[in-house]
Amino acid sequence: MEKIVILTGAGISAESGLSTFRDEGGLWAQHRIEDVATPEAFARNPALVQGFYNARRVQAAQVQPNAAHQALAQLQRDWPGEVVIVTQNVDSLHEAGGASGVIHMHGILSGALCAACGHRWTAPPEMAPDEPCPACNAPSGRPDIVWFGEMPYHMEDIFDHLTTASIFAAIGTSGEVYPAAAFVHEAQAAGAHTIEINLEPTGGGFDERLLGKATETVPRWVDRLLMAKT
Ligand code: NAD
Description:
Strand content: 15-25%
Shape: globular
Strand order of the largest sheet: 3-2-1-7-8-9
Helix content: 25-40%
Bound molecules: nicotinamide-adenine-dinucleotide
Number of domains: 2
Largest sheet: 6 strands, parallel
Structural class: alpha/beta
Radius of gyration: 18 Å
């Protein structure tokens, strides 16, 4: 049965109230990437980096999944084949909307990781600059987030899914952050039909485009797919 692989980005969570990368006035606009989202930044100023992610964790805890998250969960339930959701987002809105098995390639805000021993645990709402690791006691707890310059998670699984997909959709992602930006080419080379669902075209070379707000376009796309199957 046909397998659908979906890549989501910050745009799918925008209407839930989480700012995208480039939103004016958003959290990201107030900080430079080099100051808050690299391993070097954490080594230089752990208080600033933990403070940035603490603020994002607080914000993420206050928002609700939207119609786009819910529509993808419905697609997972009702599509006769496999539906794999890969997200660049570090929020948990896909899960809150009912999705399962979501692959978080850039990590997750609710997770903590020990930079010294690699132990993982659930992040407290506020992480301290010298957050102790519950396994080895080193003051090396950091958000379990993939920073710029680090290797995204689950890449082997993701490429296996891309090369066996019949349909590949990229939703709410600018296509500027690699390796996710190259997924469309991987899926296309394997023969998948590719579709971009975004506010604006990104120039990724997709077979099809659906432009507009995710809360409108994603439910429409899901309805279309499910209708075609009945
Ligand atoms: P991005 O900000 O670069 O791009 C967002 C895209 O979504 C843009 O193309 C924009 O046109 C589109 N968009 C904005 N509002 C939309 C809406 N309502 N409906 C449909 N599309 C909409 O984000 P990205 O591509 O995900 O990549 C940048 C990085 O930022 C990622 O690594 C990601 O981890 C990180 N990020 C994550 C979150 C989150 O977890 N919610 C938020 C901001 C940034």
